[in-house]
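Convert to structure. Protein one:
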Amino acid sequence: MRVQATNCASSFEVTTDGVGVVGHAGAALLRELADRLGLTTALDWRQVGRRRRHPDAAVLRDLAVMLADGGDCLSDLAVLRDQPALFGPVASTPTAWRVIERAGQDPDGLARLRAARAHARARAWAADGDPDVELLIIDADATLVLAQTDAKEGAAGTYKHTFGFAPLLAYLDRGQAPGEPLAGLLRPGNASPGAAGDLMELVDLALAQLPADERPVLVRSDSAGGSTRLAWHLRERGIGFTLGMQIDAHVREAILAQPEPAWTPAVEPDGQLRPGAEVCELTGWIDLHTWPPGTRLLCRREDAHPGAQLRFTDHDGHRFQVFLTDQADPDLARLELRHRQRARVEDRIRAAKATGLANLPFDLLRRNAVWLELVLAAQDLTCWTQALLLNGALAVAEPKTLRYRLLHVAARIVRHARRLILRLQASWPWAVELACAFARLRALPLRC
């Protein structure tokens, strides 16, 4: 058999005489949003010393924009710096490093970063960016961030036999839309996922991020957060809870003692029955006297997925999940659905790792703690952009999709009649959406 070789002839020439062409044009949307929401101004706390060419607030803002745009280290700030026609003067990598160090050395540095985010969040919510829900739900969860060297302060062995860090994160659930980051705590890799003191601090930081609001608040967590200390802390603050619980021998015995009529079919978010899943209440079967009054214990059983490895707590092909809640709602299926939707926080954490969290680039813990706050600020900007400026599929898009369609778009900058014009490619499928997003941004009732 003979194969005829084909040569693909180049159909274009390559030159270096282009003028006014910029990339990552959509990142300018995030930068302008940070200014208009007052995030940049709020980051401008007083610094001792001479007046700097690159104010710390502008550098911190540009780092957050860079992370939202897909960067994961300080040198990626060159994406903005190499395009002065669009982004103006941007700090060098050494300058950005010094800003991170100053924020880390400042005893109030993290607190001021968090206060700036809270200030911008209040303005974003006031501009109709708040979640349209009757109940504000905060999801708390731990994750692991790997490190390749023990030269990083705080890096340690983890419970999964890896090496790195174990930060705690809290997100506001916004349904199918991207979750809004509220708080984060950077911890050594050997920190316990269920450390009650850390979870209490995380919840307090998350509550401080919420604008003044009369809506009730509920905190969700998996079994790592199932502690009486956390439950009583939430009760003292007037916050509801739905917390996972480990299944021990007593709980398993109570589950197996339930008659078949005690099980209620579980439901999907659209109200349809969830195949092979039921829920029942175990309150009264387990001693809960150490928990806040009104605490209830619920259990979900579900058919194991084909090929799933059953555990010792499983029985008769069913898998069980138990959780505690102080909600008085008599609808067991609705309570179980609300707790099950806690799994959405896994997507929020995955998006954080795609926004710079997967790489903690510094050697000292204080610098990486500042980096974590900037990752949360980058997610803030992405969330507010989608809530305030975008519609349809783009309003719920993953970071990778959003970058490809909007943030990394190329454009041409031209000057005409004393105006600076950013001309998007007419044939780009999402050019109109990006142009409309800029128009909505400039129509917001906000001041720079």
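Protein two, convert as well:
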Amino acid sequence: MSELRIGMGIDAHAFADGVPLVVAGVEIESPRGLAGHSDGDVVAHALIDAMLGGAGLGDIGSLFPPGDPEWEGASSLDLLRRTSAEVSEAGWELVNADCVLIGEEPRIAPLRDEMRAALAEACGVEPAVVNVRATTTDRLGFTGRGEGLAAQAVALLRDVSGV
């Protein structure tokens, strides 16, 4: 078995009125948020999938089924904490993660350090281990039309099981 593994995660949610906008663990002032069974944090969800994929532990839906009332309205940072614990129990540690928010808005530059710190804390690592950045689609597709946000994440994991 390889000592290092890479996992990739992708998530997307539509905008919805009347819910807070949470991105990478940070609530952003906005008239609309993201629809989802939990808080709809696409960046945290993509990172969860990336970590689970790298560790060979399935995906976010297998760990947190969308119809399960236990996860309704849950903080995605709490889901990320639980994911990090599952990954650790399986003998893996996060070496680094790179997360990309895809959408025309919000602008995240002023919040980048806070986002990195929030995700890193939930993963039990230093903020330097987790990168958060953003891109647009030049107004193409559902993110370009302002209908929602998407995110991608890549996580590099190291085998610490000693096997």
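Strands lie at 4-17, 21-23, 26-28, 32-34, 92-102, 130-135, 148-159. The chain has a mean pLDDT of 95.
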